[in-house]
User: What shape does this take?
Amino acid sequence: MWRMALTRVWVAACVAGGVGSVAVGCDTADERGGTQHIGDVEVVATLPGTWAIGVASEVTVTMTRGGVGVTGLAPTATFIHVAHGHGGTTVPAVEAMGDGVYRVSSLTPSMAGTWRLTVGVNGGTAHWDAVVR
Assistant: This one.
């Protein structure tokens, strides 16, 4: 089985606003995820350290406002191979776990390269790019 390490995570956010988009920098990021903001919602993602091609993985995303978990959101997720523009072998699913914690599952890379997990909420998005070799 091919194994690939999550060797780099690049984090950026883009918040949709009135007539355009404003880039928002990340607070922290490393191979295990990162913290960033979508508007006034703080978004923290916990990524797996290794991935297996063709095997589904999960990511935990916590959304808070003022330190309190934000519930009642309907986040969306995509998982796309950046260079080829295609998804993995499964469609990502987002499930509310309570207290602002959301599980993004069915993240199944089909090949090596840069994969982008995008989580959207309230008209904005947060992106985590994993370069896998």
In short: The CA atoms of residues 69 and 100 lie 4 Å apart. Residues 3-132 form a domain with the Immunoglobulin-like fold (CATH 2.60.40.10). DSSP finds no helices and 14 strands in the chain.
